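Entry 14. Structure prediction run on the chain below.
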Amino acid sequence: ATLSTLPAGTPSAVLQGSTNEMDGGTVLRGFQVNRILHADRALGLALHDLTIRQINAGSGDGVEWAQSHYASGVRVSALSCARGFFVNASDQVTLTHCVSVGNTSAGLATSGSSGTRWQSGVAWSNICGFYQGDSGSKTLSVENSILGVFGSGSYGYYKLGGVLASDYNLYYLVDGGFPAQVAQASTVGAGTGRYETVSHWFRASGLDA
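Output returned:
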């Protein structure tokens, strides 16, 4: 599905799913598609009460916001995608009570976006819970959430660039999962900084106190 430009002055749209979770709710499934839901220049688009699932795990993204500033998601789940949620060149996107599970690249990925906020959600058993591919002073904040990280090739955060704020989160690390990895400056001999424990991550970054 593609949601195109909202005309200037048009009120924000709400894509509302069913709240009847006992009967399965509203599920959007994709089979070998690049993304299941693509919001392109959809200013202020809100997604509520949806489950988004790739049938072939990792075959494509769940939701992408592209140049869709002030978008939001409430009680949206992204399951078995490549990137569950992808915030691409979209500022001030807020995700509240959302869930990302079993995504093969990232639960939430950002690129060229600022003011992305993940609040009171769950990022569980993704290769990377949160991938920050921003630059400069562009910001991502993660608060009051649960991060489940499984296996030595998995991370709660992978920070390539930008400014990360992270606080009041709970971590569940299994079989060598890392709470965070931070890419170093692109100089000769530079690499990445892996943090093996939450206390190590806290001491180095001052986050998740």
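The CA atoms of residues 143 and 167 lie 5 Å apart.
Filed with the rest of this week's runs.
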